[in-house]
Amino acid sequence: MILKTKGKPWRIDEPIIGRVAFDAADDAEILIVQDIVPDDLRRYKAILTSHDIDTSIDKAAVYAIPGFGHLSAGDIVVVNSDGVINTQYRIDSTHNFLLFTERCNSNCLMCSQPPRDKDDTGYFYNIYSQVIPLIPKECAELGITGGEPTLLGGLFFKLLEQIQHQLPDTEVHCLTNGRSFAWDGFAKRLGDMSFKRLMLGIPLYSDFNLLHDYVVQGDGAFEQTVQGLYNLAKYDVRIELRIVLHKPTISRLNKLSKFIYKNLPFVEHVAFMGLENQGYTPHNFDKLWIDPVEYGDDLAEAMMYLSDHGMNVSLYNSQLCVTPEEIWQFSRRSISDWKNIYLDKCEGCTVSEECGGFFSSNLVKHSLGIRALR
Amino acid sequence: MVKIADPVHEKKTRKFQDLNYYSSKHQSDYYLLPFRFHRISEEREVMVNEIGDCLIVPKGTAARVIERNVCVADDPELYGDLIANFFISTTPVPELLNVLSTRYRTKKSFLDNFTSLHIFVISLRCEHTCHYCQVSRVTSDKHMYDMNQYHIDEGIKLMMQSPSPYVTMEFQGGEALLAFENIKYAVERTKQEAIRYEKTITYVICTNLAPLTDEILVYCKENNILISTSLDGPEFIHNKNRHKPNNNSYQLAVDGIMKCRSVLGEDNVSALLTTTNLSLQYPKEIVDEYVNLGFRNIFLRPISPYGFATRSATKNKYDASLFLTFYKKALDRIIEYNLKGYFIREDYASIILKKMLTPFPVGYVDLQSPAGIINSVIVFNYDGKIYASDEARMLAEMQDFTFQLGVLGEHSYSEIFYGDKASGLTAVLANESLAGCADCAFQSYCGADPIYNWATQGDMYGHRPTSSFCQRNMEIIRYIIELMDSDKRIERIFRNWITGKS
Question: Which of A15, A21, A287, B424 has its CA 20 to 30 Å from the CA of residue A324?
């Protein structure tokens, strides 16, 4: 799936944000011109076209774009001054994410979206404060991700407030490492919003602080995260815990489950997640990789423990053929549609409809136990 | 804030710290958090922290921890367990101190709503003459031995003043059903008051089921009244224990249980076992009986040292050790059934397991600290006298009025619940401050029972080394831990008992 394209920019000084239309009759901010240029372009902020430059048109534009096959009418894009056009919201997808910043205060060994040390927070705030009003009210689900979204500070709350008020029916899922909420005032500010359709997805990799800190590469991160979780619970913010399954933490997985039940029984959902071979992961592969067939029993024990105690658990990014049948019931097809693939080996598998499938990045590395079930 | 990573495209500068970097922060000059420990077998011991979380470890581990002989390099697993379970800390005050305090408050949150169980001794009359009966019983003179409407009204008034939004109204006897008209009066009266005071009320009738009629069952069904009865085991034990002129107590109880189940539903009728000298010889037969009758739980209760029970010494005074032998045999039998796939739970073990394995409070009056008396339960006797617990009124039947708190209609809520008698007990209500309990590893799983101490040892403070309460609970708790530690399958069964999953 292509989320980005590029052409020759013309008269673009700052990023232009808007919905795209192929038909001049549609309600949109940006027009895609494929054949004849309409006479009246006044109501558009920009035009995008595959034609070559036509300087007679007095309008911000990007010319010579290779194709528009990846765009649908109503998709929201950012047209940058360098001619790069990024898709921010796809109208036909249920997996839309707003990447609030690429900065992060953690540096997790398996980060799939490695952080960049550049202050992009103003840039992204500018974009999203314009994107959010354009998102259709029918949008069922919207993700917020990063980097670490809370690093936007006050702007983080401003964007959340915009979402809360302009998308009153949308379920919002925000991925954060939770460390900022160790500061009580930060958690309280979120609690004061009473944003009931917001769920925070917060990772916790081990019950032993040393291991969690090692995985996220941050001194004191465990205590900050757990403190953050307590503060969020105090202010009645909904929480999901996310546990990535990798070598350094598997041996204490069952103990982590017990820690969660005893110390964090207020969390609404616990998601166990297979490793995505992307971002930093290939670099740290030797430290991280453990074949799912090797941790199946540990995973089943940890998940059954939480489930038996009435907690809501899910398994993401896993393949049924390497997962104990006891916990198939928790397996969800969660990989974003544009990343989800199956292998040649999966041909003819009778349960592939229920199977979580693979990240496209898993083509290179996946369990040796993968096979078609019949 | 930690170091921010370098941009992803500059791969050469991407730096990650290895595990040793983080391990180096964990030296053996760690700080100890409060915990207690106890030997559970020749090889194993248990360490229990202030919030009741436990670690079962090889013998000598507690000593090694205290002597700072555990280090992360040699013992990563144990060291991790100690840190993660709040036994040690790398800082003098643990970073997550408020997690600990929240956990502690949660464990004690049964106190938040104060007294919720209100026992109404609706009549002292009974047609049974059980030799172990903890109260005296009378067969005649309805007017003298039934609770009168004035006292019922006054009891309800007090119950409505409970701070708890959820209260339980339990009707006991004698045989409560002999005064069914009084129960009906009390229920109807309470229903109106409950709306006024915004309370949710659970009704329970404790009965031997002999006087059960269809009319009573219909009424219980209509009003969601739970039935609690007694079943001491197979016919030959039950009839001997629970004597009735025609010797058909067992048949009446079993028929009654079946009827209650079909009308009220299986979950709304429960049976209790009282262990007599005779029962001690038949642990397997008793468990089998419960299984044969389709029960999913059994409560192995020792006999109380009160009332008539203590008068027939030959029949009912037995050593804690005899009860423990019985208990273990019965528990083993129960576990055997579970291993074979039949779910049946032992309630006393389940209560202890809940305290051990969950972060939540357990509202069981006999194993509570501060003690359940007054804090959780109050008893209104048939004659209007108010007692601190069911056991307290049994003592009163033996002319010992030490734990009488007042009289219905004469004393106010605060005089009864916060008066001199009640506050005089505070020093002996918390096992955290009782010699012998204060340093016991099982403190958080056990409770304080000043009335038991008074009845058996003549003082409320009690002497733990000679207390049968202490001997019994210490050994049951130890045994449960040993079983759980010795066999993964039993651990799973125990977990199922507290989660209800089979």
Answer: A287
Does B8 lie at the interface with A, CB-CB under 8 angstroms?
Answer: yes
Name chain B contacts of A219, Cβ cutoff 8 Å.
2, 22, 25
Rounded distance between C-alpha atoms, residue B34 and residue A99, angstroms: 45
Taking alpha carbons only, the member of B275, B367, B292 closest to residue B326 is B275
With a CB cutoff of 8 Å and minimum separation 6, the contacts of B8 are A114, A115, A116, A279, A280, B14
pLDDT at residue B311 above 70? Answer: no
**CA–CA dist A323, A300 (Å, integer):** 8
Paired with B227 in beta bridges are B205, B269
Task: Provide φ and ψ at B345, rounded to 5°.
Answer: -110, 145
Please list, residue by residue across A245-275, b when 16 or more beta carbons sit within 10 angstroms of its beta carbon and e when fewer do: bbbbbbbbbbbbbbbbbbbbbebeebbbbbb
Placement of tokens 């004393």 in the chain? B411
Determine the pLDDT at residue B11.
Answer: 45
Residue A344's pLDDT is what? 86
**Rounded to whole angstroms, how far apart are CA atoms B259 and B190?**
26
What pTM value is reported for the model? Answer: 0.92
Phi, psi of B346 (to 5 degrees): -95, 125
Q: Is A8 on the interface with B (CB under 8 A)?
A: no
The percentage of residues in chain A with a pLDDT greater than 70, rounded to a whole number, is: 99
In terms of Cα–Cα distance, which of A82, A92, A73, A63 is closest to A1?
A92
In chain B, what percentage of residues exceed pLDDT 70?
92
Query: For residue B146, which of B119, B178, B117, B118 has the smallest C-alpha distance?
Result: B178
Q: Angle at Cα A266 formed by Cα A260 and Cα A267, nearest 5°?
A: 70
> H or E element: which one contains B262?
helix B249-264
d(CA A131, CA A293): 43
Cα–chain center distance at B16: 52
E strand segments, B40-165: 44-49, 54-58, 88-89, 117-121
A interface test, pick of B9, B12, B16, B23 with most A CB neighbours within 10 Å: B16
Are B104 and B50 spatial neighbours (Cβ–Cβ below 8 Å)?
yes
R_g of chain B computed on alpha carbons: 26
Report yes or no: A132 and A166 within 8 Å, Cβ to Cβ: yes
Here the ipTM equals 0.92
Cross-chain Cβ contact B5/A117 below 8 Å: yes
Give the C-alpha separation, A250 to A260, whole Å.
15
For chain A, the average pLDDT equals 93
